[in-house]
Amino acid sequence: MGLTRDFFIYLSENQTLNAAAKKYGLALGANKVVAGVDVPSTIEAIRVLNSKGITATVDNLGEFVFSREEATAAKNAILEMIDALHNAGVKAHMSIKLTQIGLDVDKEFCYDNVKAIVEKAKQADNMHINMDTEDYNHTVQTFEILDQLKAEGYTNVGTVIQAYLFRASDEIEKYKDVRLRLVKGAYKEDASVAYQSKEDIDTNYIKIIEQRLLSAKAMTSIATHDHNIINHVKLFIKKHNLNTDLIEFQMLYGFRSELQEEIAKEGYQFCVYVPYGQDWYGYFMRRLAERPQNLQLVYKSIFTPDVNKKVGIAAGAVAGAVVLGKLFKRK
Ligand SMILES: Cc1cc2nc3c(=O)[nH]c(=O)nc-3n(C[C@H](O)[C@H](O)[C@H](O)COP(=O)(O)OP(=O)(O)OC[C@H]3O[C@@H](n4cnc5c(N)ncnc54)[C@H](O)[C@@H]3O)c2cc1C
User: Whole-angstrom Cα distance, residue 200 to residue 163?
Assistant: First the structure.
């Protein structure tokens, strides 16, 4: 299997490695792509972004939540961050994952948690809450919950459209007045519901971006590191003389930072996805799955001479990961 997408997705899903990583601070170079383990360090990272004209969408990292206690703790951490962002007066909103606040426990319980978050954000100057989309089954439920929140009158909540899904174009049509983030899609989906090849996904991504930009009545976030797509979007905006007040680009914290700043300096709105928290391991492994070149971050963290005391831990974790990879390959 080697250092392939499937290998890193497997590692990201390994609960033993996740639990081990949680005990330590940001290791393996994760500090380059995770803003901090706590609220103050994350606020500080957002202030730096804001000083460059970049806003933030903040994500409390968390995986494998299957109990009410863990889901409630995650909800409370999100509520705490909403308060902290509001009190600090930084330009930021939040992204949440419904599996972290109980979607796998009970849908109604999860709905109550999302509603508490969206209500709290509404009181914090109508802060926006983005519900990230996950694998297909969870995504379907995320849209159902969005519909329920809309029916209750909430306007400060939106979600993400994954271009690899056949249903993406219908969702663009249905949610014209909802703030949406448009992405290619990060999970491995079945051919019965999703495009499989990079070409097909890229083609559909451009198609839904154009469809959305010509029809939207709410904010659109184009979330990609793909410079070809970004350049295409910029040309499309110019060609159709579109108002950029309702358009922004998004990238992940720590990725292509120079390009992020360049786009912001050109006058486009730019928002960075800022993950924080102790549960950084799964997130970091998925970034490696998307782009094994990101391993550079790991190598740098291990081989930089003045690197912190976590080198031993980092090296051990990589070695463990490789052993696990070999085991996985045998099956
Ligand atoms: C802000 C944000 C939020 C997201 N939210 C979700 C979500 O809720 N649900 C979901 O399923 N997915 C989400 N994703 C992930 C998304 O679906 C893709 O899996 C991910 O962004 C990789 O695709 P890409 O468009 O960035 O470019 P890719 O298709 O990975 O890359 C295209 C090309 O861009 C260039 N490139 C890409 N990355 C780099 C880099 N780091 N350095 C240099 N060149 C690079 C390379 O030339 C590469 O060939 C999110 C992504 C972002 C940025």
Answer: 9
